[in-house]
Amino acid sequence: MTISADLLRGYTDAVILRQLTGGDGYGYQISKEVSRLSGGRLEMKEATLYTAFRRLEGAGFIRSYWGDETVGARRRYYSLTDEGKNRLNEEVAAWHETREVLNKLLEEE
After folding, report:
1. Which CATH number covers residue 12?
2. Nearest 10 degrees: CA dihedral of 81, 44, 101, 104?
3. What is the rounded average pLDDT for all residues in the chain?
C-alpha cells in the first residue's frame, strides 16, 4: 500500500530536514533514502523535492553548495542550518500532536 500524496504533502519539508540531520545530502540520495526507509511506500518526485529545496533554502532552513565531484556530474548538496534544526523540532512536535489527535479520532476504543 502506498501512502497518499495528499496525506504527506504537509510533511515534505520535515522529511527533508530530518534526512539532513545525518549530514549533507543531494536530491537523488535523499529521494532514495526516503524510499528505502518507507519500504518503497513513499516516493518523492523530483519536482516536489526541488521545489521544497528552494522553499527551505529561501526560508533559511537549509543552504546549498556545489560538490567537487571528479567523476560524473556535479551535484548540488544541501545542509541543515541552525534555523532548520529548530524548524524540524517544531515540525516533529506538531506531528506528535497531530498523530495523537488522529489516533483518538480514528482508532477503535
Report:
1. 1.10.10.10
2. -150
3. 91
Band of residue 105 on the pLDDT scale cut at 50, 70, 90: very high
pLDDT at 29 exceeding the cut of 80: yes
DSSP the chain: -PPPHHHHGGGHHHHHHHHGGGS-EEHHHHHHHHHHHTTTS----HHHHHHHHHHHHHTTSEEEEE---SSSS--EEEEE-HHHHHHHHHHHHHHHHHHHHHHHHHS--
Distance CA 2, CA 24 (A): 27
Of 39, 19, 15, 21, nearest to 29 by C-alpha is: 19
91 in the Ramachandran plot: left (φ > 0), alpha (ψ -120 to 50) or beta?
alpha
Range of the domain at 93: 5-106
Q: Would you say 40 and 5 are in contact if contact means Cβ atoms under 8 Å apart?
A: no
Instruction: Take residue 52 and report the three cell numbers written for it.
Output: 521544497
Number of domains in the chain: 1
